[in-house]
Design a protein that fits this description.
Blueprint (H helix, E strand, L loop, with lengths): L1 H9 L1 H19 L3 E3 L11 H12 L7 E5 L4 H12 L4 E5 L16 H7 E2 L2 E8 L9 H33 L4 H19 L6 E3 H32 L3 H28 L7
Parallel strand pairs: 1-6
Antiparallel strand pairs: 2-5, 3-5, 4-5
Helix pairs in contact: 1-9, 2-7, 6-7, 6-8, 7-8, 8-9
Length: 275
Amino acid sequence: MRKFYEWIVEHTKTVLTAFLVLTVLSIFMKDLVAVDYDINDYLPEDAPSTVALDVMEEEFEGGIPNSRVMINDLKIPQALEYKEKLKQVDGVSEVTWLDDAADIHVPLNTIDRDTLETYYKDNAALFTVTIDEDNAMTGSAVSTAVATTSTVKEVMMISAFAVLIVLIVLLITTPSWIEPLIVLGGLGVAIAINSGTNLIFGRISFVTNAAGNILQLAVSLDYSVFLIHRFEECRLENPDAKSAMVDALMKSTTSILSSGLTTVFGFLALVLMQF
């Protein structure tokens, strides 16, 4: 182990170059990772809702309606015009309204009241819309659209806030103003590589996309602080910086490894979840 650490310390330029290349590649790969905003995709295959959706898709043609649109102050002819306009919207595969459930050419008072009020009530028309999966994941299309836009915005705000807090903590716990920047730079590289290598999964959950970077920042920050403090202690005993760093790495291995394994197995427990 000591020889390995000595090689790293002696070949810092090689190590930094390798990680720089990995970081650049990961930044490009991150854009290729699809983000799944449909929480239903993570339900167990034998869950009643999953089974029901599968049966519906097998038994009926067309997509499963996943959103509804209500338009106020409409007469029947106007509602029919809006139905056609909704059908023309990119990504909309099907629109269902009153004319699909009853004959609208007869007086409205002759149509079953429950059927009528399902689609048309108080001059308000309620359309059931099916949006293609390529444009919005199955489930509640409106919720999906909101999650898609709000998550990205909120993650950026949370990340900025988290980095600020971490920077303050590091400034308090480290003796040099440059050390917090080095630590954050190293964590940034690790987060970038982790995000880019998600490409091996093809797609990730929006929950992972939102929380993964922040979690990684939180659970791995202390390892850098461990090493910095251990290096300071070793530097007092050994004036040679490279030799002191090797000693610090040797002495930090046990604490960092045990702490890291605790985190790893803690998160591995999640794989036992059905949902």
